[in-house]
Each structure stands twice: as C-alpha cells, then as structure tokens.
Amino acid sequence: MDKNDKSKPSNRVIIVSNRLPVSVARNNGNLNITPSVGGLATGLSSFHRDSNGLWVGWPGVDPVNSEEKKAMENTLRNDFSCLPVYLSAYDLKKYYYGFSNRTLWPLFHYFTTYSTYEKSEWKAYRKVNQLFCSRLLEVLEPGDIVWVHDYHLLLLPDMLRQENVDNAIGLFLHIPFPSMEIFRYLPWREEILRGMLGADLIGFHTYDYTRHFLSCVLRILGREQEYGQVVAGNRLVKADTFPMGIDARKYSDAVNLPSVISEKETLRDKLKTEKIILSVDRLDFSKGIPERLRAFELFLEKYPKWRNKITFIMLCVPSRTKVEQYQLLKREIDELVGRINGRFARPGWLPILYMYRSVPFNELIALYSEADLALVTPLRDGMNLVAKEYLACHSKMGNGALVLSETAGAAAELGEAIIVNPNDMEMIADAIAQGLDMTLTEKKAAISFMSRRIEKYDIFRWAEDFIEHLSHIRGLHDLNKQRFLNKDLQGVMRDSYKKAEKRLILLDYDGTLVSLKKKPELAKPPAELLHLLSNIKGDPKNTVVIISGRDRECLSEWMGESGVDLVAEHGTWLFEADLDKWWIKEEGLAEEWKKNFYPILEMFSERTPGSFVEEKTYALVWHYRKAEPELGDHRAKELMDALHDMLSGTALQVLRGSKVVEIKPAGVNKGKAAMYWLGKEKKWDFILAMGDDWTDEDIFAVVPENTWSIRVGFKPYTKANYFMESPVEVISLLRSLADIKD
Ligand code: GDG
Question: From CA 186, how far away is CA 192, in angstroms rounded?
C-alpha cells in the first residue's frame, strides 16, 4: 500500500511487547541478532513471521552511535519486521528489574511478600510506557491493529487513547491476574486498571484471571460488567479468555529432524538410565523449583525401586539475574541439588542432572521427546507452554506422562495430566511414581486427548481468535460511534428545534440532568439547573416534563419553582404545572401490599451493609448503591428470586434497576406517562427524550421514530437513537437550545 495514503486502512497487526522476539548483542564490534527465549517470544514469533505486521519492543542493547543505530534499525526492520524502542540503563533498572519484576510479577503471582512498592520505579514504569507510546505514534497508520503484550505495558493502551489513537487496541496478559484481595495491595491499582481499559479487548489465559480482573474493575473503579463488557467513556471494553497455544506442528515434526535424532542418541549414550524425568523453566520463584526438588527427594526415599533407574534432568534458563530474589533462589537450588545428589548418588548414577543454561532448539526437542515424564509444577504460572510443548513432542508416539500443577493456567485445559498441588510434596512424589508406572495404553489415551486440543487451538488459531474478537468489538464500536450526538448532529438538532412550533422535551432527572450520587438526597438540583429549565419552559412553544422515579414530595420541593411538568414514581403520579396538582393516571392502585413486603426488604438491608429501603406511595425500593458491589449484586439476585414467587398472581411487578430493586404496580412505567403528554398534541414537530437507565427505555420505546431520543452514558443495548456521555454534556446541549429565541 502507498504509505503516504493515510485514507486506506492497512490492517497490519503491530505487536508491542517489552522485548523484541530477537535479541541484539554486540560481539567484537559486530551486531549479533538471535531469537529470544521465553514464552511470549517463542509463542508469538510464528504468528509474527506469517503476518505482514511489525513488532515493537526493546532490542537488548542501546546503539553506541548514529551509524550503528541506522544499521541496526535497517536490519531489524528489513529482516525481522521489528522496530526497536531504546531503554537507558536507568530505565531498565527501574522499569524492568524494578516495577515490572519486583512489583507486578511477584504480586500477580501471589508472592506478596516479595513485592516492593517504590515510587521512583512506578514513575519509570510510566515513563517507559510513554516511550513505547511515542514510538508507536511515529508508525501508526489508520486500520493498524495494535496488540500490546504483558504486564510491562499495562498503561500503554490508555496512553494511546489519551493521544486520540482510534485504532483497534488489544491487550493480552501472559501472567495471572490475581484476585481482588491481592491486587488491592498495589498503591497504583486504579491507574493500572484505567491503563488496561484503554484497550478494546483484554485477553487472559484462564476464566479465573478474567473473573478476577472484572471483579477488580467493579470494586476498585466501580464499573459494572455485562457479559464481560465494561463501558469506558464512549467505548465498550471486553475482557475474555484465550488460552494461549503453541506452534504444535513445529514441535511434533521436529522430533524426526536428523539433528534432533542425533541429539537423542548422544543423550541416551550419556545417561544410560532406564527412564528420564524432565523439567524446563526459567529460573523463577513462581516455578516452584525448590519444592519440586524436595518432592523428588521424597520420591527417591519413598520409591527406592527407582533409584539407579531414573535421571531427573532439570533445565533452568537463567533469568532476571540482577534481581536479588533470583540470586537467592539460584543459591537455594544449587544447594538443594548438591544435597540430594550427595545423598543418593552411587558410582555410575547421578539422580539430578542440573543444567543452568539455555539449550538450542534441537537439544530442547531431544530432551522433550526422550523424557518419559515431564514434571511441570509451578507454584503459579499464567499458562505454561512447556507442558504443551512436551505433549506436542509426544503426540505421535504417545509414550510420555505429564505431571502438572493445578496452579498453572494450562491445568484448566489439560485435565488428563496427573494434576498435583505444587506445595504437596507427598502428592508430587506419588504422581511421579504413578506417571512412571503408567502403561503405554494409558499414556497414549491421555496424550492423544490432550494433543488433539493442542493441535486444534494452536498459536495460529489463538492469535486469529483474538484478532477476530478484537475486530468484532471494534466493529460494534464503529457502529456505536455514529450514534454519539456530536457537534454536527447537535447543529442539525438545533435547526430542527428552531423551525418547530410545538416542542416536547421529556427529561429523566438522576443520571441525566445531575450525576448519580451515593445517597439520593445528595442530588439536589443546583440553582443554575432550575434557572435553565424555567428558561426553556418559558418559551411558549415548549412543553418540558421531568419524568423521574423519585416521589412527589421530593420533586415538588426540588423542581416546583422551575414551572415544568413532573412525573413521580416512574409514572404513578403526574403533575401539570397549569393545573397545579398531582393526580394518578392508573385507577385502583393499592398500597396495603407494602406492609407485607417491607419486612423482607428490611431484612435484606440489615444483611447488606450500606443498603436501605425507600418507601413511596405505591412502591417500595431497596437501594444498594453504597453496598459492597459484589455483595449488593448477589443480594439483589437473591431478593429478585425471593420476590418472584411471592408476586405471581398479584398486580405488582419487581424490577431491577441501576443499583435498586423496586416493587411497584404492574403496568405503571415511564413510557405510559410519556404517552400521556405525547397524546396531548396531534403532532409535535420536535421531540427530545433523554434518560440514563433502564426505566427510561420505556420512554424510548413509545416515542415516534424521528424523536431525538438520547441515552446518557454509553450502553450498547438501547432503544434510543443517540448517546451522550454525561450530564455535563446534556446541560450544555440544553443551554444551547435555551439560547435559541425567535
Ligand atoms: C510467560 C508466563 C506463559 C525454555 N528453556 C529453553 C527454551 N525455553 C522456552 C520454552 C517455552 C518458553 O521458553 C517458556 O515458556 P513458559 O510458558 O513455560 O514460561 P514463561 O517464560 O514464564 O512465560 C507463562 C507464557 O508467558 C506465555 O503466555 O505460559 O505462564 O509466565 O516456550 O520452550 N527454549 C530454548 N532453549 C531453552 O533452554 N530454545
């Protein structure tokens, strides 16, 4: 495509992650470029190679001069489709080793005591996210899909939105998202959540992580979700589960590569034991390596028949070596390996073969395919690709067994593995024995089941699935965007208002003219609002009606002097300023029923701190806006269930609104009240109807199609024709209408 033609959408996928999938290193003055190790890099490289996108990230070195910079950028761009972001030594120390790996990583893996909360590291984290943002702004084109990866860049999505980036943005978190009880420790928890909500789609490996995230968004930001969707300004953000896959074919085919076959022979010649147990991890405290070693020691104690017959190959790839916790862990592992080998080794037999290094791909595949049992026992792991890679290498022969920790994300998919609690040494020891004793038939059955899933939902399907979902959400966003009442549409509205002789203006109160408050009595109208309403009402061409759920007394006291017409209790009571009296439209409404239901609602408010009961003439309302949100929702469901049966056969209905459960006469609603005013004229030539919640939907349902019906606060499913963001915008629109005089 013509790069200068910004009107054509590009549809490139721009992957953004802390590290590029390649590492640049200086060797005798030359630049060496090699593939990076790690779950994200190995997993997504295949997807990136086959797409025509770009990968933005840190290359591993800073160029020494402009010549080197140019050469490096050219090679990275032309040969690897990569765009480097440079990080200074200070940035690396504070942002990478600091906030990312000493705050977020331990906290998100439930190692709360390892987490540090340093303001200077948080500032560096923000600064580096900003660096990534600026780099992206240099290259972004319309239609580019931005796909941000992992915990290093959680602020980036919203930073892009602050720069008015309107591209589709996806975010995938490769590590667990912890429960609210853990996440709340973070001093910058709100900023992190807001940063993430800049994305259109946020992906997690498991349903639990998704659930935890949505719960934090509700309890920390107070934003509710519906089907995993949260409203953020004028956008809908979806959180969903996408368990990451691997390039399964690559692993299963590699088993027969000549270089792998020769590696396998070398390995067998060297070891000479009957069976091999294997573990492969970055050396990280989340991987449960000391616990695994202790469990292996117990296994040797408990099952002496396996002594001399097995070798435990433990491959640990050096990782984050500059962080103190990792140095201490390394020492602990060294000591444990030394102690266990010292205790059990015999001439010609060493129980643990400890490899503290990274091995080339063909050697890794040889290890996977020669291993009789893979021991994957992290204390916490977002997913764990090693388990899947091991299975892929055994998919053809089926001669392998997998012991897998229940706290690895992969356990949610690989139920046929031998699942263990990584802190239960006895359980792991027994699981090793069980795995080694499995018959070939048993192993084949388990592996064929699991590898079918791995082959089907591989890395390509995973990436495709994520991008498809992102495009879908984006499509909805584009449709909804056209429904926002922008300046142009407001101009059209004003023209139509100007020409009209008979105008009807139907307005909800709370959430429409004033923002919602924790307690209903705090939402009193300011003097300017009353002045504005009486100003509009003062135009003889206008009829203004406030249609509210509030009671008569409150509306009369608060709004009476503005001279507008009023509807109270969602349509039960009507007040026309000219008649100066309240009256009931529906005949035969009863109120005796309230004494039976009041105690039930009272009981719910006693059990739900922060909630209370409101009594109206013909309705009872249980309010829970101030209650702890999840408890409030849970109790609301319980209350709805309890009332459902009691109300059947009565002339009452129960409705669940915005943080309220209301019992009221069936057949009374705001729409019916609106119809009364609609019927007062043969033809209104301008109708404006505005409301912010579900009770206003009854108005939107009955107004003529060409009404300027506006839902305040973005909600994807509404009968209104347009959206406005907040009461602030509503007031400014009403002001501009009030300024129109003949
Ligand atoms: C994070 C999350 C999540 C390891 N040693 C060598 C080597 N590796 C490769 C493996 C595998 C990758 O590194 C490790 O991936 P994991 O998924 O096990 O773990 P993390 O690095 O912690 O990754 C994790 C992942 O992101 C993806 O979302 O699953 O939960 O923590 O691919 O093969 N590769 C080579 N030599 C080695 O010595 N060539």
Answer: 9
